[in-house]
Amino acid sequence: MISYHFKNNDMSTAKRPGDLEVMSRMANENMDIRMSGTLVKATTVKLGGHITMGVDKDTLNTIYMSALGSDTHYVVLYVINKEQFDKIKNTPL
Alpha-carbon distance 60 to 65, whole Å? Predict the structure, then answer.
């Protein structure tokens, strides 16, 4: 587990955790974080591409609400190296 120590509770001068550290802490503390590894389709367009991912109904509803302006969740896409991930995932702690 990642721990954070701030002198006098002042985060203005402290190094802030990166996105992946924050998500790791959220997962370790059973907070509201979701992951889907189901890639349905990837297509190219002039400026890049469109990605279609399969998600459960609750996650889809959360994404819809965020798109409509509920401003309660970030929706992000991370692409990670499969070989590196599997190597770490399959190494006992």
Answer: 9
Residues 11/35, Cβ–Cβ less than 8 Å: no
Q: What's this model's pTM, rounded to 2 decimal places? A: 0.66
Contact in structure between 81 and 87 (CB atoms under 8 Å): no
For residues 29 and 40, membership in a common domain is answered with no
Whether 47 and 60 share a structural domain: yes
The pair of structure tokens assigned to 92 is: 């006992």
Q: Which residue bears the tokens 């302006």?
A: 69
- H-helix or E-strand spanning residue 87: helix 82-89
Domain count, the chain: 2
Is the domain of 49 the same as that of 92?
yes
Domain with 81 in it: 36-93
pLDDT in tens, the chain (93 residues): 444 444 555 556 678 999 999 999 999 999 999 999 999 999 999 999 999 999 999 999 999 999 899 989 999 999 999 999 999 999 988
